[in-house]
Write a structure and sequence with these properties.
592 residues, alpha/beta, 5-stranded mixed barrel, 26 strands, disordered N terminus
Length: 592
């Protein structure tokens, strides 16, 4: 049996370029009479390129072996700070890295970070000469940007791969071979297991390897599998401007930091996204300015732990005073010093365009010092909405989760936020059935939902993930049917309390950013209020408050005043009063 050839692509070690990466190039092998040959399986179309492929393979064979760099792959690598331009690896020419107008189809699964990652990946591929298509049938490359937060998320990808298998087989008979890639967290978590389980997958790229996509796809074109799943200590894609693909979009995500250092016992994110590192303030401000110039009316600052942002990119930033944690909260890591913090960034971003709403997600409750809360209260264009993931209402479970706070400290923070930001909208995350959770623990979570009365919530049954502390130290001992029963109870209570909370908006006038036509009715429009709740209202003519006497119909990107007439746990309804601006609306809006 021919052993799989492993080639480690380590640019930093060889001085080939600024991106340190590890990639395996796994030759496809042909099965013949129950044995494996040592040559790649050529498609009928590929036989014409045998000479070129042999030349390419010979160049690969002379490259470094996997063992040569095995030690370098054991830990995240740092990029040289001075390198600005990447050189192609020695076994590829610049021309071979070009996409030659091959069409790429991208599918995104999971969180907002994956939406932003999709735009980053597309920006990189577009510059390499690829075209994007929304038609799956005409694609030359299909890339799935994946999620690993729960087992169900990964199963969705496995099911999708099975669906794509028939398309790939059919393509081999009709025209050039279709290439399929797995990007993001699932690629990082499972690595070669994906290549071994699904031979149809051609490339793997972890969240820190998107710059390497042109090389990976070039290697895949030669008939081999290719992977780069090395995590970086400093990759933030600060110099990559994400490509907004929807011309009618009113909002955009802006990644400000990547990774997470919290190491909550249930969470896979530190193992799939790596350590925390923040983009320089200047690059974030530049991106937000460009989005403002494009006419977008809302940006959401993104990060796995967004409010722990800390820009240490300039030496003078290290003298900045460290901010305090929320009262009663602690960290699982040594206190970090210096750097420009989240309050500074939020202040600077909010000054760029007074007519652009600013949101941020997902924060950790420990990182809400008073200066952040005060800034949210003072600035009209920073939305009065805070996501405050609790995960559980039981102090005992919170300790097992390594969340760094008790129920009492969390509730105290809730009260402090509501005192600091009147009318604030709150949302949260909850996990049902974590390791060792008793019925009493569950009832404490139920009571927290009733006590806080969140406007929005995201609730899930616990799904144990390999590599996490819970996987190694705790026992997943809550029966699946019990998890699901507790989850249903949490959802029921959340909806009851959210409906009560949202009904306090009835009779109030709220500013709504119009997103477009309602999915359920062509005669209605939908948008979101300051608290990020969906608001539905009739598509009718209205007065333009900025131009007396003018009658208009609301368009995506317009701000309108809507008087709320009814509310549910997820949606508000009302009738539109007029078109306005964010600046002028504050005199007319009533508290939510």
């Amino acid at each position: 049996m021919h052993h799989l050839q492993c080639i480690l692509h380590a640019q930093r070690c060889l001085g080939w370029g600024p991106l340190a990466s590890v990639s395996w190039l796994l030759p496809r092998t042909c099965r013949a009479h129950s044995s494996f040959s040592g040559t790649a399986c050529p498609s009928p179309e590929g036989r014409q390129e045998d000479g070129a492929r042999k030349d390419f393979s010979s160049r690969l064979a002379t490259g470094p072996s996997f063992q040569h760099f095995l030690r370098s792959a054991s830990a995240p690598q740092e990029k040289p700070a001075s390198a600005d331009v990447e050189d192609p690896p020695p076994y590829l020419t610049v021309d071979e890295l070009l996409g030659r107008q091959r069409k790429v189809y991208l599918e995104t699964y999971g969180c907002q970070m994956n939406v932003n990652d999709t735009e980053i990946a597309w920006s990189i591929l577009q510059k390499s000469g690829y075209l994007r298509t929304s038609n799956l049938q005409e694609a030359d490359v299909i890339l799935l940007v994946t999620c690993s937060i729960r087992e169900k998320a990964e199963q969705t990808i496995w099911n999708r791969l099975h669906q794509l298998k028939a398309l790939k087989t059919k393509r081999l008979r009709s025209r050039g071979p279709l290439k399929i890639g797995i990007l993001g967290c699932m690629a990082e978590r499972l690595k070669e297991e994906i290549l071994n389980r699904e031979k149809m997958v051609d490339i793997l790229a972890g969240p820190d390897a998107y710059r390497d996509l042109p090389r990976l796809l070039t290697v895949a074109e030669s008939g081999q599998q290719a992977a780069n799943v090395l995590l970086s200590l400093d990759e933030t894609y600060a110099d990559v401007m994400p490509v907004q693909t929807s011309p009618s979009a009113t909002s955009a995500f802006v990644s400000i930091m990547r990774g997470c250092d919290n190491m909550c016992s249930y969470c896979i994110v530190p193992f799939t996204r790596g350590r925390e590192r923040s983009r320089p303030v200047a690059s974030i401000l530049e991106e937000v300015r460009k989005l403002s110039e494009q006419g977008l009316k809302e940006v959401t600052l993104l990060g796995q732990n967004v409010n722990s942002y800390r820009d240490n990119s300039e030496v003078q930033f290290n003298n900045a005073v460290s901010t305090n944690l929320s009262r009663g909260f602690s960290t699982n890591y040594k206190t970090k010093q210096g750097g420009l913090r989240f309050a500074h960034l939020l202040d600077q971003v909010s000054r760029i365009d007074p007519e652009m709403r600013i949101r941020f997600t997902s924060p950790h409750p420990k990182d809400f010092p008073d200066e952040v809360l005060q800034l949210i209260h003072e600035r009209d264009n920073i939305c009065k909405q805070i996501h405050l993931p609790a995960q559980s209402g039981s102090s005992r479970v919170l300790e097992a989760m390594r969340r760094g706070y008790s129920r009492e400290a969390y509730v105290e923070l809730i009260h402090h936020i509501r005192e600091s930001i009147p009318g604030v909208s709150l949302s949260s995350d909850f996990i049902a059935g974590f390791c060792g959770e008793t019925e009493e623990d569950h009832l404490q979570t139920v009571s927290l939902l009733r006590e806080v009365q969140y406007n929005m919530g995201f609730l899930f049954a616990y799904s144990m993930r390999q590599k996490t502390r819970a996987y190694h130290r705790l026992k997943d001992d809550v029966l699946e049917e019990v998890k699901l029963r507790r989850l249903e109870e949490l959802i029921t209570v959340f909806r009851e309390e959210a409906t009560k909370a949202n009904k306090t908006s009835v009779g109030c006038t709220q500013l709504v950013l119009v997103e477009g036509v309602s999915k359920r009715s062509a005669t209605e429009l939908c948008g979101r209020n300051d608290g990020n709740l969906k608001v539905i209202f009739p598509d009718v003519e209205m007065e333009d408050a900025t131009d007396s006497g003018l009658r208009v119909r609301a368009q995506p990107g317009d701000y309108v005043l809507v008087k709320i007439t009814s509310a549910s746990s997820q949606t508000l309804r009302g009738h539109v009063l007029c078109r306005t601006t964010l600046k002028d609306s504050s005199a007319h809006c009533s508290p939510e």
